[in-house]
Amino acid sequence: MPVAASTDITVRVLLFASYAESLGREALEVSLSQPASIADVVSHIRRLPGGASLPPKPLCARNLAHAGQDDRVADGDEIAILPPLAGG
Amino acid sequence: MPVAASTDITVRVLLFASYAESLGREALEVSLSQPASIADVVSHIRRLPGGASLPPKPLCARNLAHAGQDDRVADGDEIAILPPLAGG
Amino acid sequence: MTFLTSDPVELAPLLASVQSPARGGLSLFLGQVRDHHEGRAVVRLDYSAYGPMAEAECARIVAEAEQRWDVAVALRHRLGSLAVGDTAVAVVVASAHRADAFAACRHVIEEVKRRVPIWKREHYADGTLTWVDPTATLQHV
Amino acid sequence: MTFLTSDPVELAPLLASVQSPARGGLSLFLGQVRDHHEGRAVVRLDYSAYGPMAEAECARIVAEAEQRWDVAVALRHRLGSLAVGDTAVAVVVASAHRADAFAACRHVIEEVKRRVPIWKREHYADGTLTWVDPTATLQHV
Fold it and tell me: DSSP labels for B6-25?
């Protein structure tokens, strides 16, 4: 059974609205071991100061499209963590 | 069993659009024996020159409201015979 | 209120008549003159009405919608000679709830077509003209 | 096409972008800022967005609607500071068939609310402000 090489990847994480306020920032770089999922990015963010106020499974996007918690992330991806949408 | 008195009544009949063109007029007075219904007014109009092109049961109105063929008409009523509606 | 007009239909006054700070959802329907009908090229339409009944029927339709849903309704139908692209009918519905706004707007335009005594005569590119009978065709806007 | 704007939403250019002589039925939805939310007096709203994704998501929603129905769709959402009564979102749908126009218009506004990354912060008459979370309440416009 092949084992994925555990090389690090770096993704850019964007925070918005109430989440940006909780974390005190709107963007950061996060390094993760491969393979990594959206859920791994969220776990990382929730361990940062102010991150505990985020829900365990927030709405997320990967490269400008909605993404599921189990979706893989790749090096260089733009991952957005989205507070409840309120457009319209 | 009471019998309705057969006194004449007079109604004003309005014709519109294609029906007015068929009959060559937009309004006329029609006298009928009581009791009389919308259907009786229509029958009278269909016997006039040009009236045969009207359908046997056209859409009708009595005093500015839609009326059924069996609705009674009274002296002084305004009865309108309406071609297929095409508003909107 | 007057529901029939021989002037061009303007949206702004209709919107103003139903807007309120409590009603944040507006559903509108506009019916405009098309350039074709049953494959024939239309150049102009003449709308005529049984005026007093058309006004009364429009008032009844609006009152019924405002009773059935939590909405404010504005309705205007143009009469006279219309060119392709002109607005023949406008329905504007405002509500605190967008589902109500959509439902009432749809209901009003359907009832206008079904109940209001208005007729139209189409003028075709070949110079002929016909009274339109929507019941004689499956084609509806 | 740009779906987000910081300028007031004007209907005329949206209508012009979808109107055609073959599409005689137009369904519009306007969402305007209400003066109350959950019993609190609202004086102002700030809309913000994840701009690039919001544009992409609006484009996908419009494309999906134009594929599913025989319609042309225009969509505009305003960002920035809005006052009570200002139009926050406008959907304009033109079709040869009014049933399609209504269905597509309703679908687009529902999808915008469900999918487009836009947030709003409400400023209340008492000087406080809150990020609005529609999932936390049953009250929807």
Answer: --EEEEEEEE-HHHHHHHT-
Q: Give the per-residue pLDDT at D39.
A: 87
Q: Do D77 and A66 touch (CB under 8 A)?
A: no
Q: For residue range B23-55, what is the model confidence (pLDDT) as tens digits?
A: 999 999 999 999 999 999 999 999 999 999 999
Tell which residue, D101, D141, D105, D97, has the closest CA to residue D122.
D141
Q: For residue C86, what are its two tokens? A: 């002109």
Q: Are strands C71-78 and C4-5 parallel, antiparallel or unpaired?
A: parallel
- Could you give the ipTM of this predicted complex? 0.92
Amino acid residing at A78: E
Of B17, B82, B87, the CB nearest to C77: B87
Q: Which residues of D touch C (CB under 8 A)?
A: 11, 19, 21-36, 84-85, 96-98, 101-102, 105-106, 109, 140-141
3-state helix, strand, coil in chain B (%, to 5): 20, 35, 45
Helices (H), chain D: 11-18, 51-68, 98-115
For chains A and D, count residue pairs whose Cβ atoms are closer than 8 Å. 73
B vs C contact (3+ beta-carbon pairs below 8 A): yes
Query: How many C/D residue pairs have CB atoms within 8 Å?
Result: 94
Burial of residue D2 (number of CB atoms within 10 Å: 0-12, 13-18, 19+): exposed
Task: Report the SS3 class of residue D141.
Answer: coil
Measure Cα distances from C2 to C62, C74, C78, D46 in Å.
Answer: 12, 10, 11, 39
| Tens digits of residue pLDDT in D81-129 | 999 999 999 999 999 999 999 999 999 999 999 999 999 999 999 999 9
Neighbours of chain B (3+ CB pairs under 8 A): C
Residue with tokens 């005190």: A24
Contact call for residues C105 and C31 (beta carbons, < 8 A): no
Distance from CA of D34 to the nearest CA of A (A): 12
* Residue A71, phi then psi, degrees to nearest 5: -65, 135
Question: Shortest CA distance to C1 belongs to which of C88, C86, C74, C103?
Answer: C74
Q: In sequence order, what are the residues at sequence separation of 6 or more whose Cβ sits closer than 8 angstroms to the Cβ of residue B24?
A: B49, B50
Two structure tokens written together for D114: 């469900």
**DSSP code at position B55:** -
Contact D102 C101 (CB under 8 A): no
The pLDDT confidence band at residue D137, using thresholds 50, 70 and 90, is low
Residue type, A75: D
Measured from the Cβ of residue C37, the count of other Cβ atoms closer than 10 Å reads 19
What is the token pair recorded at D41?
A: 């007096």
Q: What is the pLDDT of residue C67?
A: 98
User: pTM above 0.95?
Assistant: no
